[in-house]
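Question thread 4412

I'm putting together a teaching handout and wanted feedback from people who do this every day. The idea is simple: show students a protein as raw sequence, then show them the structure tokens that encode its fold, then repeat with a second protein so they can compare. Below is the first pair exactly as I plan to print it.
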Amino acid sequence: ASHVSKFLPPDVPMLASVQLPRPMQESNIIGKGGNAGFLGRAYDPYFLFQDPNEEIKLDDLKLRPEVPPVRLEQRKTLLETINAGMPEMEKVAESYALNEYYDKAYDLILSQRARNAFDLTQEPDAMRDRYGQHTFGQSVLLARRLIEAGTRFVQVNWPSVANGDPFTTAWDTHAANFGPLKDLHCPKLDQTLSALLEDLHQRGLLDETLVLTIGEFGRSPKLGVSTSGNSNAPDGRDHWPYCYTGLIAGAGVRGGQVYGKSDATGSTPLEDPVHPTDILATVYHTLGIDPHTEVMNHLDQPRELVKGNPVLGLF
């Protein structure tokens, strides 16, 4: 998302990338990964930190009552004057892309576009019901509104402690693999994903929007066996990064096809294996960005966007 924000910024005053309903969490560490790294804070995604199934408050995207637009403009001019008279401060700002960060924040605050996009009350009740009246469903509906308003990249994380059941809503099924998948996870994913694809198609957006549904790894073929050092219940599956499935739609991808083939137990790929770097390269390809483009890191070292190659057989 950060590289997309850098190479393909929005054409209008809008958030370049958004991650919702909250950042990723690993071992109780919130926001581990998912930021812009050496590109600087200007290319970090906007983290919502709220449940779209409830009222969204965006105090950081509006002016405070005591700061009218004229006063904000005066503050911006004063900041530019101070930075111009302090070369060392300007160098620091450049190294962290702070000037771009400030400019984007300024445009967003003065524009109504972002705040309107986050206002789910503008959607008919029937549409909100179609996506699903739960955290994931309303997050994906919000993602559609953001894309429609000009945001380039939206990442929706499946919430680990939401959707009505704080114990069984994560896909990390080290125990109770079957019941939650059948009764909770898959029905909600099916409802929301089908609503998104149908909605994008009806709005004429599907041909220019890539939809990628995938996790960071699959689940172990055998029940109750530890493959990652985790303990697993007899009806649980462990982490399995060697073979798993993703769904890709839109942006010219041919529908109705199955690309690749695994063995009978889903343990290993047999035909047309796709590496995660190839998926990233495919995303760049659909956006018109050369996946092998080199960018310079904070140490002025060249870094290739990704080593993989786009999966052209999907198109």
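The second pair follows. I'd like the answer to focus on this one:
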Amino acid sequence: MLLSLAAATALSIPRRSWRYFGLLATATHELGHAVAAVTSGQRLSGIRLRLDHSGTTTAYSRSRVAAAWSCFWGYPVPALVGAAFVWCGVTGWGAAAMAASVVVLAASILFLRNLAGFLITLTAMAGAAALTFLATASAAGHAAVIFGLALLVAAVRDLAKLTHVHLRRRDRLESSDAYLLYRATSVPSAVWITIFSALVAGSWLAAWLPVSRILLGGA
């Protein structure tokens, strides 16, 4: 488990590795918007992923509530998915988690609208498929824990970036989900950022409980 923690740290914190892993975090963020849009009855038009870690998901709805719903889930989803991957890795469902990610990524291809999006998604699919079909159950479990913890770190990084935009880069507010939620609901951006933070913190707690038990047990 200590090696998994070290690998997750190496994947998500150094600038060089974050340059690449951050692309997967962005894809997860946009998939959060996309799944929320589809499940709330909106028409999903397309997903664009860019190599600068930005992305956009376009959906159409006549309901402001549905639009706010899909806008909300971008920031919490990487943390929630990360916690789910950690749980799956610890409980022996690592390969199943990887297989599920292949299915979700394959479905998202139908909505990708740019070359970078295809490149990022196909690369992620190839890695997840290899772990599903070629790796041992133990290796897939460790990979799920590493990926999950790295996504949890990514969620914190992205949340810090969002907060920085609101405090220091207010000229970029139009790109902020919290600001868009404020525009849609009149609830202040600070409230939405607080809710995002609570969900990310809860995801960290849910992931850390099984990890801490293993560490205390000496595994």
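Top answer:
Good format. For the second protein you could add a caption like this: The chain is about 75% helix and 5% strand. The chain has one domain: 2-217.
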